[in-house]
Amino acid sequence: MDIFKIEGPVKLEGKIEISGSKNAALPIMAAALLAPGKTTIKGTPYLADIVVMANLLSSLGATVQRNDNFDISIDTSNIDNPVGDYEIVRKMRAGICILGPLLARCGKATVSMPGGCAIGDRPVDIHLRGLRELGAEIHLENGNIVATAPNGLTGKKLFLGGPFGSTVLGTANILMAATLAKGQTVIESAACEPEISDLANCLNKMGAKITGIGSPRLIVQGVNQLKPVEYKVIGDRVEAGTFMIAAAITSGKLELTNCCLDGMGAVVDRLEKIGVTVEPNNGGCFVWQNGPVKPADITTQPYPGFPTDLQAQFMALLALADGNSVITEKIFPDRFMHVAELNRMAANLRKEGPSVIIVGVKNLVAAPVMASDLRASAALVLAAMAAKGTTVINRVYHIDRGYEKIEQKLNAVGAKISREKI
Ligand code: EPU
To answer: Environment class of residue 107 by beta-carbon count within 10 Å: exposed (0-12), middle (13-18) or buried (19+)?
Structure first.
């Protein structure tokens, strides 16, 4: 198992290129199932989760290849085994988004029911409700979702909201299924995340007829077939946000390239409140901290609200604020595994239901800590770069799921991170 040893404090200065978005690439890879032939997805990050999705698609009968430019080609000419096996799907919840495309393409699919994970329960009831509305028959058998569409799928007006608002992968699943359904589908309360817009744009390039992209009302006119395409995924706004905080927490200055600020309004708003400057520059930006870190209150919400995927990283920054802040988690109310670990580094955080009260401290102190999930681990890396001493982060495989070459990228701008095997 790999660990990180991180020496701090450091001041980061220089340029970082943001990778392609993991959460855009994963459903787009699944979308390749809809179009028999070879789809090429450009700019995909080289990450553990992408490898899992590639293995999942291969297990269905696809041929998946990666070239030196980080493009992935997925040949789906022969999909002869529409079964998402537990041994693969259990490694990554995004595996669920093969369900809609398989059903649309093959008329049947069996996909292992994903379990909970470190950030909470994560049910898939809304995915199943949406597919049933399109005419699928679905039951559970031996821990598997068994879905059939004996008469094909038929478009319908449906509502996809749930207790926590819209669902990102649920929207992806229904949207993909609806592209090949008969007639018109209207998805109300669709997720508006930029990753869903990227998927919709890719599907349209494949020949789908989707309008309302970027809004909570997606309208899909079903078509008979889709064609394979070449498509480039958007930059990763969560990686970008993480590196913006890296600049701020180390009192440094970074230039981020391949970083589209368009989808980052709520993040930039909170950074500015904290005293961070984000200056647009040629498809990217410069980021630096002005003076002390100011306190700020944050509530996570579906897009265009503040993203849950940056909640932990902002907590690391606000732990060093000159005053008190409150972070409230409204998407995954249990997503606070990082609180205890940051407190081990001398932060002063107190969980109160779905909120955390953050009493700013002057310094963080290095400690051995445990990575618990992807974004919580990123928060520990950020805290460690600001803390005095050597922090040891265990279980860094969580970070490898979503941050491409994180130690190389950060070391190139002044961090001192070494990866060791234990
Ligand atoms: N929900 C339901 N029923 C469902 C689906 C979702 O109640 O059928 C609830 C969830 O429990 C949660 C809320 O709805 O409370 C929103 O969950 P959503 O379905 O939007 O999450 P997801 O699609 O499973 C994606 C990202 C997550 C990100 C969330 C929220 C991917 C691969 N995953 O998950 O990313 O946190 O949207 O924005 O796109 C990460 O990258 O670290 C990560 C966890």
So the answer is: middle
Which residue has 């879905």 as its token pair? 147
Which pair of structure tokens corresponds to residue 140? 């559970």
Query: What per-residue confidence (pLDDT) applies to 69?
Result: 73
Mean pLDDT of 212-218: 98
Could you name the CATH architecture of 22-223?
Alpha-beta prism (3.65)
Mean pLDDT over the full length of the chain: 96
Domains 2-19+235-421 and 22-223 share a fold: yes
Instruction: Give the CA distances from residue 118 to residues 50, 63, 83, in Å, rounded to whole numbers and listed in that order.
Output: 19, 32, 25
pLDDT band at 115 (very low <50, low <70, confident <90, very high): low
Residue ranges covered by each domain of the chain: 2-19+235-421, 22-223
Q: Report the alpha-carbon distance of residue 51 to residue 57 in Å, rounded.
A: 10
Top mutation candidate among 93, 96, 122, 159 for ligand 1, by most atoms within 8 Å of CB: 122
pLDDT band at 370 (very low <50, low <70, confident <90, very high): very high
* Crossing angle (nearest 10°) for helices 265-274 and 311-318: 10
Q: Which atom of ligand 1 is nearest to the CA of 373?
A: 42
> What pLDDT score was predicted for residue 117?
72
How much is the average pLDDT of 188-201? 98
Known active-site residue 117 = yes
Q: What is the Å distance from ligand 1's center to 273 Cα?
A: 27
Look at the domain 2-19+235-421 and name its fold. UDP-n-acetylglucosamine1-carboxyvinyl-transferase; Chain (3.65.10)
Residue 149 Cα distances to 159, 180, 181, 272, angstroms: 20, 12, 10, 50
Q: Quick one: pLDDT at residue 116?
A: 63
Helical (H) or strand (E) element with 131: helix 125-133
